[in-house]
Every structure is written in structure tokens, then in C-alpha cells.
Amino acid sequence: MSAPDHTAGHRDRLRQRFRDGGADALPDYELLELILFRAIPRRDVKALAKTLIARFGSFAEVLGASVERLAEVEGMGPSAALDLKIVAAASQRMVKGEVRRRTVLSSWAALIDYCRIAMAFEEREAFRVLFLDKKNGLIADEVQQTGTVDHTPVYPREVVRRAIELSATALILVHNHPSGDPAPSQADIRMTQDIVSIAKQLSIAVHDHVIIGRNGHASFRGLGLL
Questions:
Q1: Are residues 36 and 86 in the same domain?
Q2: Burial, 38: exposed, middle or buried (Cβ in 10 Å; 0-12, 13-18, 19+)?
């Protein structure tokens, strides 16, 4: 006879609590357990979920970590790591859908949520551009460059050239600071000014430049820099 599965009762109880109370009824490590159940079907994953959150800092940072770093944690493996990244990608797609359904400027909170999910916990800087039409609807969302932990090369003329290709009339610039501090640097300010100057000559507006960090975000328009 096979040994009894001592994890089954715990898993059933956790699923029932989720059915009854939703995600708010569970602490972060238990929600992470629910995700890990399918990837690791016959092992207690409570300790692993707690280890992941302790290692990376939060539930969101676990989902934001790379497959390689997740797989380094004992008990994970590449398959479970990939499952977590699939959940992260699904979350991004869902929030991005909220942005696409409405004009970007009227769904600002959803936009910030999307950018935080997509970029806040990346280990390298990335520079993305949201290209908008004349009604401020989203035409395209593209990562233009990916750099190092503290620098991304950005070419203002290439940004504007791409806007022309897409017939965009406005832009929102977004990049992340892996350090966690979203405060703009002098290099960020100069680069933004260069893009604004070139875009203005072609009647393309730059609505904002948003910097995303683990500890929040900074808006150039909100700071009076645009």
C-alpha cells in the first residue's frame, strides 16, 4: 500500500479558505502555496513559500524574480520557477487589458499598476514607451532598451522615429530603477528633455516620464519636470 498523502488535508483546507474568503483571507505565503501546489503536487510547500518570500522580500518580488534566480532556491527547480513566471505574465496581461480598454490618461492608476507589475522588480533597467493616438488610446507598449543595474542607453531620435512609424501623437516614457529609489537622476532629466525637444518639432507630445521603483514611482509631470 502506498503511504498516505499527509499534505492533502492541508491543501484542501487552504483551497476552501480561498473559495470562502478570496485572496484577502490568506497571508502572502499561503497564496504562494496555492500557486506552488500544481507545480509541486505531492510535497509540503509551506516552508518553500516562506523561504521564497524571505529570500526575495515580498510576494510581488517572488513573481518578479527571474526563472534562473527562482530555480536557485532549494526545492524549486526550473518547472516550478516557470510556473511562477506564467502567473506573473498572466497578471501583467490582465492589468494591461484594463489600460487598453480605456484612454491611458483616464486609467492612470491601472497604468501605474501595470508598470509596477511589469518593471518594479526587474534586476536590470529597462526603458519602455507607451505610444498613444490622438484620443490618448494605447497604440503600442514597447520596451526600447534594456541595460544594466543602473543604466539604460536611450536614443531620443529612435524613440521619436518609432512614434512616427506608429502614427503616434503622444508618448508616455517609463523606466525602472532596480535600486528601488524612483527619484530621477540628472541623466534621466537630460534624456527626457532631449526626447521632448525632438518630439515637439514633430507635434508629438510627451505626457509624462514615470520612473518605477520597488518603493513607489515618480512622475516627471507630478514633480514639475515636464
A1: yes
A2: exposed
For the ranges 95-109, 181-195, 200-214, the lowest mean pLDDT is seen at: 95-109
Torsion angle of C-alpha atoms 115, 121, 124, 125, degrees rounded to 10: 30
Q: pLDDT, tens digit, for every residue of 77-95?
A: 888 888 888 888 888 777 7
The parent domain of residue 137 ranges over 103-219
Domain count, the chain: 2
Cell of 37: 501546489
**pLDDT band per the 50, 70, 90 thresholds, residue 98:** low
Assigned domain for 214 exists: yes
CA distances for 152 relative to 1, 105, 156, 177, angstroms:
59, 26, 12, 10
CA 190, 166, 175, 218 torsion: positive or negative?
A: positive
Residue 151 has pLDDT above 50, yes or no: yes
Write down which residue in 49, 65, 91 finishes a domain. Answer: 91
22: CATH: 1.10.150.20
**Cα–Cα nearest to 211, from 153, 136, 125:** 125
User: Which residue, among 45, 91, 46, 41, has the nearest Cα to 64 in the 3D structure?
Assistant: 91
pLDDT at 189: 93
One domain for residues 86 and 111: no
Considering the domain architecture, whether residues 208 and 115 belong to the same structural domain is answered as: yes
- Residues 61, 111, single domain; the answer is no
CB atoms closer than 10 angstroms to residue 91: 16
